Amino acid sequence: MASKLRLLLADDHTLVRQGLRKLLEVQTAWEVVGEAGDGAEAVHRALELKPDIAILDIAMSRLNGIEATRQITRRMPQVRVLILSMYSDDAYVTQALQAGAKGYLLKDSADIDLTRAIAALARNGSFFSPAVAKVMLDDYVRQLAERGITDRYDSLTEREREVFQLIAEGRANKDVAAVLHLSPGTVETHRARIMEKLDVHSAAEIVLYAVRKGVVR
After folding, report:
1. What is the mean pLDDT of the chain?
2. Which of 53, 93, 122, 200 stands the most exposed, by the fewest C-beta atoms within 10 Å?
């Protein structure tokens, strides 16, 4: 029998945690193994319980969700973090990604998108609320217009775009190589060229760029 997907919930509002738990417990293949009422407790519980996915509110007491994410992913990189937030601002999403989050879900759409988001992270993918992706795309287009430059994405070759999407979905080089029937070395070469062409410098920036372009969600 396959083991259940282990989830940790962290929000400083008890009623919110109870509501989220009810949404998640419908999924028989998932198990909420613990809860936390603030960011510091979320870090402690993550280290103690070793969940597959941690669902963290962005605005918690003692330690905010961004910093809790940073500490969890630094100490336990195998834990995938989904941020819950009331804010769709580009700045918040950027901070969450840089801290190591793999998904960003708006609370007002959690009843619709929560299970989809967790399923995506469970597949080693990423998920962003449609409203967040739209805000980021609109802001990105505006910035390009203000700077009078064209989108560098158009300079990628067909193969580079395939590699780019798989990387943005959270896949490691060896997984990209397996999907595209390439050697890991060739994938690394494509990755380096992609980062140079797009002027991005980390996996988080690749995901951010992909979200802005609507390549992943």
Report:
1. 86
2. 122
